[in-house]
């Protein structure tokens, strides 16, 4: 069984370098993934030798992660896919902001993670959530022999009793517990709750996985189908499914905006809000220890790419507007030719065909 408590093992790796190393491993994960069929009884089976070769080829930052890989090799590929999912969602959420979650320069990302800012806090939460989500989804689709569907429920699904007739839980619900536990094993493997950085990272990892209303658990959807003669609902079959990861990303982004600025208490045992007039952080909140750097100018030492050359919206007063994104610098405008779909037609059955049309567009870039 996977332990439900985070491993707290001292090592040479700092908490920030652990997440960096993990992300570095996750970006090219498909190069090492084992090809094979998906679904049901076609779940991939690894021999002991195959698992050891695969896991030995990966330079894991923590030995425990290698052990977990050998125990759950196929699930480990889903862990890495989930980490990638988290990074992609981060880039979507921040695409129009001063910091845009770019991974173009790995050394800059590494410097950013050494600053315990809101952005580092968000990365911990979103990657941890992505890992839990990716593994749970793979369990429900039969891709993993290490886990199965979530156990059947006994409580009636919403609306089942008022609909009359029989009801049952069916389908294949996502195995949230297995996803959460594997996320803990990999994301919390080298975090130590003995200093403020470790406490911050553990807190944000957990916030990404479970904290209400961030958690995948608290956003599960129930889908039901009626079965019966002539459209009647003699039997209602229901199953649970997770929301899209975009919804999870939106929720965590909301927590980023309301993140709590914290410090460690005198006993060194927990984090507390810096300003006593502010609310105490809960398990639901994203927390951070350092102010964010100035992302307007290039500062590699602080993980900033700057915003020079970034595309901006001249007519927007929001974060994507030229005034804010260019940090009150000027911007340049130039005509560019772009392609877009046009003259789309529905073709029976079941296809939509479109032409590609070129158009001139005035595009603006920060100086």
TrEMBL record:
<keyword id="KW-0272">Extracellular matrix</keyword>
<dbReference type="GO" id="GO:0005102">
    <property type="term" value="F:signaling receptor binding"/>
</dbReference>
<dbReference type="Pfam" id="PF00110">
    <property type="entry name" value="wnt"/>
</dbReference>
<keyword id="KW-0732">Signal</keyword>
<protein>
    <recommendedName>
        <fullName>Protein Wnt</fullName>
    </recommendedName>
</protein>
<dbReference type="InterPro" id="IPR043158">
    <property type="entry name" value="Wnt_C"/>
</dbReference>
<keyword id="KW-0325">Glycoprotein</keyword>
<feature type="signal peptide">
    <location>
        <begin position="1"/>
        <end position="33"/>
    </location>
</feature>
<keyword id="KW-1015">Disulfide bond</keyword>
<comment type="similarity">
    <text>Belongs to the Wnt family.</text>
</comment>
<dbReference type="InterPro" id="IPR018161">
    <property type="entry name" value="Wnt_CS"/>
</dbReference>
<comment type="function">
    <text>Ligand for members of the frizzled family of seven transmembrane receptors.</text>
</comment>
<dbReference type="InterPro" id="IPR005817">
    <property type="entry name" value="Wnt"/>
</dbReference>
<dbReference type="GO" id="GO:0016055">
    <property type="term" value="P:Wnt signaling pathway"/>
</dbReference>
<keyword id="KW-0964">Secreted</keyword>
<dbReference type="InterPro" id="IPR009143">
    <property type="entry name" value="Wnt6"/>
</dbReference>
<keyword id="KW-0879">Wnt signaling pathway</keyword>
<keyword id="KW-0449">Lipoprotein</keyword>
<dbReference type="GO" id="GO:0005576">
    <property type="term" value="C:extracellular region"/>
</dbReference>
<keyword id="KW-0217">Developmental protein</keyword>
